[in-house]
Amino acid sequence: MRQDGGRDVLGLADQVVDLVRRLAGPRAEAEVVVTRADLALTRFANSFVHQNVAESGVSVRLRVHAEGRTAAGGGSVVTPDGLAALVERALAAARLCPPDPAWPGLTPRSPVPAAPAWDEATAFAEPGERAERVRAFVDAVGGLEAAGYCRTGYRAAAFANSTGHSAQGVAAEAAMDGIARTGGADGVARLHVDRLADLDGAALGARAAAKARAAVDPVELPPGRYEVVLEPAAVADLLHNFALWGFNGKRHAERQSFAEPGVAQFDPAVTLVDDPLAGSGLPFDVEGTGRRALTLVDAGTTVAVAHDRRSGAAAGVGSTGHASPDAATFGPMPVNLRLSGPAPAGDAGAPAHASAGGHGAQHAAGAGHGDGAQHGSPAPAGPLVDDSTADLVAGMERGLLVSDLWYTRVLDTKSLVITGLTRNGVWLVEGGVPVRAVQNFRFTESYPRALGPGAVLGIGRRAVRQPDRFDGVWWDAPALRLAAWNFTGGASG
User: Which residues make Cβ contacts (< 8 Å) with residue 46, sequence separation at least 6?
Assistant: First the structure.
């Protein structure tokens, strides 16, 4: 049965550990992660579905430590012969590896948090169910050209090691990313959810179309430092780069990260938490360490970075549950960041995020109504497609509203200076009102400095979960109002 996927993969993990014991003796150490993944994607372009793809498979990752040497390997053949061959390859590789004096040892038996609830209807959605969301998106753009994807995914994973520690979990998720295009102008809408039923293709299509129509006939503005409101899609790029380059235990140990625990590096309005169990995340990492919410920035002060067992042992703090198959190369990093601000006065306990500089302000004419995420909401008009962003824009005397960032590349890892381009809509704001579309810019900016003390003028009340290109990775991103952003030229420059 489908619900038995977790138990099935746990049995495979135990088999591999037993094989290591038999082939390498009781002193050898082994840890195994077995993952069954069902991933499906419905792509559309030119307002038509042009591809339905799906894959289902089981992968096995083994790490062994024998005679002071460590090696890892993986495979997808889970027959008895296939598993035995994987173990033999890993042990042979270990014999050829140099000694590993920094081996942190295996995760001991320890409790693992319960996995979040998962939705079976999402995990095993049919192509027609994804196509329904695509059709709703295409219908909602009102004749504009539409393109994008709708995806669903399911993972059942199990961990076992030779200390007797084991864990298992199941996760499901869905996401949609679509654009609408008219006259060379694009509008975008993205959303990651735990249940396919919560993906409203019509609402997302209406948002994308409203932004596309508002982005036609852009004017050129000179480069310079502008006050900005970054929408959630743009903020997701900040969170992605903070995770990869900043709050990464390996890069921090190598002094290639800006992060300095104990130092107020961000505006006091900023709190950053990595929280895999707030959504469709597995409750343990590839070393079997239980995953829990980890606060990285607390009211502007950096307080932690992410660690696996190796980097945590070197730092003297232990693992934070952020081991991954690629951590030896890229380092342990957060993959489910949530950016939030302080709760609004008199609104304690509310799930919404704070919004400074215009909370409750009246929207400009034509700004749209509601967040566009509810069934039956009026179709948004103009570039402001949600109230949370509109509140931030209302407090801005003169600046830019930026929908999205892309093609971002790191120029300096220590200060996290990044260059990239805007896309999918930029608008000049005057007197709290977007007055016209602006041509795309190239920018060069230090992301930590842009969110530094005194630089954050407002954080949206509501985060919009943005999908990443990797399964199980998301960013809870509200809109951000920042005092300055350094635009260095036109997009073609």
Answer: 145, 147
At residue 251, what is the residue type?
R
Determine contact, residues 154/37, Cβ cutoff 8 Å.
yes
206's tokens: 């209406």
Residue 140 pLDDT: 97
Angle at 105 between CA 103 and CA 108, to 5 degrees: 165
CA-closest candidate to residue 242, choices 158, 334, 154, 314: 334
Rounded CA gap, 367 and 59, in Å?
48
CA–CA distances in Å: residue 227 to residues 248, 455, 457, 482: 29, 10, 9, 6
Within 13 Å of residue 102, how many CA atoms lie on the same side as its CB?
A: 11
Three-class DSSP category at 277 = helix
Q: Please tell me the distance from the alpha carbon of residue 144 to that of residue 47, in angstroms, as a whole number.
A: 8
Q: State the Cα–Cα distance between residues 278 and 293, nearest whole angstrom.
A: 8
CA dist 336 and 319 (Å) reads 17
Number of Cβ atoms within 10 Å of the Cβ of 195: 18
The per-residue pLDDT for range 299-347, each reduced to its tens digit, is 999 999 999 999 999 999 999 999 999 898 999 999 999 999 876 554 4
pLDDT, average across residues 369-379: 45
Q: At what angle do helices 5-24 and 80-96 cross, to 10 degrees?
A: 50
What does the alpha-carbon distance between residue 355 and residue 376 come to, in Å, rounded to a whole number? 26
Q: Is the pLDDT of residue 8 over 80?
A: no
